[in-house]
Backbone:
């Protein structure tokens, strides 16, 4: 089993910054991709940013130029640096990982979520 532990959420004023981190632990061959999703009240969960094992990144249009995703493969962690935050960024942020376990077995895991609140 794989566990994802998130940290770094909190309350920040508009224009400020926060950094989220997620550490994966457990038994697996490799992590194919890790990323961050968010879900605001009344909304669907949406992709914020994702990074593959090869370093390819994907960002939501709404966060391009403001957020940066990075990884530390040695520690099985992914981070999300969030700058120029706006109230629209307020949501519960979830860490996500696609984990390879065996040749034909890929599993999807979710963290418990961490609250990010941006005041106007």
Residues:
């Amino acid at each position: 089993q794989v566990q994802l532990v998130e940290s770094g959420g909190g309350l920040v004023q508009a224009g400020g910054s926060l950094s989220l981190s997620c550490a994966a632990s457990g038994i697996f061959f490799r992590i194919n991709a890790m990323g961050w999703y968010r879900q605001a009240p009344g909304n669907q969960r949406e992709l914020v940013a994702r990074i593959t094992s090869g370093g390819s990144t994907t960002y939501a249009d709404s966060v391009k130029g403001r957020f940066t995703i990075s990884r530390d493969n040695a520690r099985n962690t992914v981070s999300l640096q969030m700058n120029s935050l706006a109230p629209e960024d307020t949501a519960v942020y979830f860490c996500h990982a696609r984990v390879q376990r065996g040749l034909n077995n890929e599993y999807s895991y979710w963290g418990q979520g961490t609250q990010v609140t941006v005041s106007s």
Observations:
- The longest strand covers residues 30-39.
- Residues 19 and 53 are 21 Å apart (CA to CA).
- The mean pLDDT is 95.
- The radius of gyration is 14 Å.
